[in-house]
Amino acid sequence: MSKKDIIICRCEDINLEELHHLMEQGFTSIEDLKRQLRIGMGPCQGATCLPIVQRELAIFLKKPLEEIPLPTVRPLTLGVPLKAIAKGAKNE
Amino acid sequence: MNKRILIIGAGVTGCSIAYNLAKKGVKNITVIDKSFLTSGATGRCGAGVRQQWQTKANCIMAKHSIEFFEHAKETLGYDGDIEFKQEGYLILACTKEEDEQFAKNVVLQNSLGIPTKKLTPDEALKIVPHLNKNSFISATYCQTDGHLNPFKMTDAYYQAAKRLGAVFHFFEEVKSIRHENNQYTVLTTKGSYDADILINAAGGYSREIGLMVGLDIPVYAEKHEILVTEPIAKMQSPMVMSFAKNLYCQQVPHGSFLMGRTTPKQPKGHDIDSTHEFLDEMAKTIDDILPKIGELRVIRQWAGSYNMSPDKQPIICESPELKDFYMACGFSGHGFMFAPMTGLLISEMILNEPLTLETEMLHINRFKHQTTHEVEKSVV
Ligand SMILES: Cc1cc2nc3c(=O)[nH]c(=O)nc-3n(C[C@H](O)[C@H](O)[C@H](O)COP(=O)(O)OP(=O)(O)OC[C@H]3O[C@@H](n4cnc5c(N)ncnc54)[C@H](O)[C@@H]3O)c2cc1C
Question: Relative to the CA of B336, which ligand 1 atom is closest?
Fold first, then answer.
């Protein structure tokens, strides 16, 4: 299977070839890769891509998995419409 | 020039300075950052670029910088897409005072060649049909304002600077600085560097870097929060902004909406945690001004530091007390859009070239000799 057909992130449609290309250019932390590819920032908040990227980095850098740090967990974990938040805030 | 130059900070400011110096043939440039590329305010910012300012210095800095962004991809030889969307800023006047002040701002901006127009609510609604007509009195609009991808823009400077020979070190923090016999020795978490010229481009930490050489730079860090929604098909061209109602809101080419506001009475400091108070206030403001956007789901919120100066305009100069110590800080929440000029001006100062702009209003001395300042009020 071509690396182009292996999807790493479904939210942003990123494939393995794009990931390897950036790693070869020296973007070898998840924080760096996130900012180039938008991985981990879509509707699923990294549930799919982050473990895969972490494993790919571990292989590339020849390091144990535990030594590849994951990015900060941001609120919200599930999308909430702004209107629902506004309504809640006005009733407080 | 054979002098060794060391830049502290690899945000958009440090990268632009490194590029501008390297392009002019300076060989010995090192950039040190305590974290990854764009880890500071640059990677956390709204990345809006506008020329609609109230002070002359800010107008001119922004105008020249936007002219650079228009050709940045070719100028820097960047393979990627900097995602420059040039579809304007629509600034809402929500009080009578704002309406009067904005009329004056338009005169100033037009006199400097910035094509801003004053609009009635109906004219504004033609540009952004989902605006709540009752939430504002009038608006100003400048078509050539816009937005970029801050990661890509900074990467473009970084790649170009590297190609021209600048050397970058990441995940290395500057801990202390010694100055002896006209030479700076910079001690980091990984080693020590000797330099003839030092440049403070440390963003929210500029004050701390100043203190390392005994300088009291009158700037401080202040938290500003921001959020992003799920992406949807394009429905809004310009950035919508209100100072009185405290909001900026922009749809980026990716489809998501970015929006932020200032939390009143935010204490000084380096805290950048997200709060639910911000989320509540942001949601209420959107519901008032852009109710349709309120139907979108928020997927993330985060925060970053503004580096605030007393008059909310940047400090770009050599220190009057310390020779060969330069600073580019105090951007007060709009340093991304000024970065092209910041880099150019610092390179001209270091190489003793004629300056593209009058820089007196950017000099730190303005806080010593003047008792009153022209303060920029067009800020969120
Ligand atoms: C929420 C938010 C929205 C914004 N929106 C806009 C906008 O729409 N338009 C606009 O123009 N601007 C905006 N800004 C402001 C803009 O982000 C900044 O003015 C700009 O990015 C400053 O860039 P910089 O390179 O000077 O600083 P930074 O990007 O903060 O870079 C400073 C670097 O210095 C490093 N550093 C600090 N201390 C040390 C040390 N001791 N040793 C080594 N390295 C060190 C840091 O790691 C950091 O990478 C916004 C800011 C925020 C927070």
Answer: 11
* Structural domain that includes position B352: 5-46+151-219+311-369
Option in A36, A45, A80 nearest B151 (CB): A36
Is the C-beta atom of B62 inside 6 A of ligand 1? no
Distances from the Cα of B321 to the Cα of B284, B317, B365, angstroms: 48, 11, 10
Q: Taking CB atoms and an 8 Å limit, are A92 and B280 in contact across chains? A: yes
Could you tell me the CATH number of the domain that includes residue A8?
Answer: 1.10.10.1100
User: Under a CB-based contact definition with an 8 Å cutoff, are residues B225 and B260 in contact?
Assistant: yes
Mutate to test the interface with B, among A34, A68, A77, A82 (most CBs of B within 10 A): A82
Residue nearest to atom 21 of ligand 1 (CA): B42
* Residue ranges of chain A whose CB lies within 8 Å of a chain B CB: 29, 31-32, 35-36, 38, 41-43, 45, 74-76, 79-83, 85-86, 88-90, 92
Checking ipTM against 0.85, whether it exceeds it is: no
Q: Phi and psi for B371 in degrees, rounded to 5? A: -100, -30
pLDDT tens-digit readout, B289-316: 999 999 999 999 999 999 999 999 999 9
What one-character-per-residue DSSP string does B99-148 give?
Answer: HHHHHHHHHHHHHTT---EEE-HHHHHHHSTTS-GGG-SEEEEETT-EE-
CATH number at residue B228: 3.30.9.10
Q: Please state the pTM of the whole predicted model.
A: 0.93
Same domain as B247, residue B129: yes
